[in-house]
Amino acid sequence: MSKKIMFFVPSLGIGGAQKVASFVINSYSENGHKLTVVSYDRADKAIKFDSRINVIELNGSWGKSKSKIYSLLEKFKTFIGAKKIINKFKPDIVVVFGTIAPINLALLSSNSLIIGTERGDPSAYTKFQKLSIKQLFKKADKVVFQTPMARDCYGELVENKAFVIPNPCFLLQSPNEEIESSIREKEIISAGRLVEEKGFDILIRAFKRVHESFPEYKLTIYGDGPERSNLEHLIKELGFNNDDVKLLKGTNRLPEVMKKASMFVLSSYYEGMPNVLLEAMSLGVPIVACDCSPGGAKFLTKNGTIGGPLIPCGNPDVMSETIINMLNNPKKMLELASKGTSVKDELHPDKISKKWMELI
Questions:
Q1: Could you tell me which residues come within 8 angstroms of residue 152 by beta carbon, excluding any fewer than 6 positions away?
Q2: pLDDT of residue 59
Q3: How far is 142 from 359, CA to CA, in rounded Å?
């Protein structure tokens, strides 16, 4: 029987939650159900949906509020807008990707079946966000987590209704996993939004010692964000030449660039499920990853036993030492990288799609 299913997504722009949401939604569009997607933030329309899917924008402006009063008005406007849409369409099932508090609160009076999702780090939310999430998850019929560690953060609140569904690995084609270190470019790369929680300052500081031991290696970070000027200042302060450390804009050619690199480093303090790490591993690129909360890197690397080692967050000395050890042991580095490509099979899109279809 045909169902009316509504999906709330953070935005229609680039992002991990959006990418997975569009994958789930487009997969489900083939099943003959009436699908509606509600976006609750202004952003460039980078993700695409099947033409049969109804897309609605709430036109919020999260992260751009000019004052507390303006922020409260925006939240209230989003809350009212969401309630109106829910009341108008009366969906049988609502799936929420993300943790925008007004949306969570708007759903508390809904008669729809609700599937909540945790896409980030529970410890990083504001008190208001935590309260709204707790209330939504209490009401929800099912709650989806990316890792067992994220699920365990909620304990009894989600007992008997929690499901772990990791992100799919979209990069199924990879270069020869036995590629020799001698033909890789002597470049260490990282990528992500240029914000404090990504820990790029730690990576740049760590690379100072790496560069002293391996002056032929370069560091390139791909991304955009508010920390660019601070990172540029740090690069100059540490005395790097222009070619030693580069901050380049984000690119949709990242997999093509990444597969030729000697190493990928994840320096984040927290990540829901680091898609860029998943891509690097699937491409057979050696990695060094911080054990970011709530456990996405630990989950993907099987506690640092595939892909590359897992290290503590925020410690440039440990990071530099680990990178140097990897570069000094190319055979071991490539063995770990080769093992990391197993994520392509374990997290194949068909397998992840099936889990979502069965749940919904």
A1: none
A2: 67
A3: 8
- The predicted-structure confidence for 11-64, as pLDDT tens digits, reads as follows 777 667 777 888 888 888 777 788 999 987 666 666 778 888 898 988 655 444
d(CA 266, CA 66): 32
Write the DSSP assignment of 267-306 as a string of letters.
--SB-SS-HHHHHHHHTT--EEEE--BTSHHHHHTTTTTS
Which pair of tokens denotes residue 153?
């953060």
- Please report the pLDDT score of residue 182 as a whole number: 52
Residue with tokens 């989600």: 158
Whether the per-residue pLDDT at 181 is higher than 80: the answer is: no
How crowded is residue 260: how many other Cβ atoms within 10 Å of its Cβ?
A: 15
Residues 6+ apart with CB under 8 A from 76: 102
Do residues 246 and 170 touch, judged by C-beta distance below 8 A? no
Instruction: Indicate the average pLDDT of the chain.
Output: 89
Look at residue 56 and give its three-state secondary structure. strand
DSSP 147-201: SHHHHHTSGGGGTTTEEE-PPP--------TT--GGGSEEEEEEES--SGGG-HH
The helix (run of H) or strand (run of E) holding residue 142 is strand 142-145
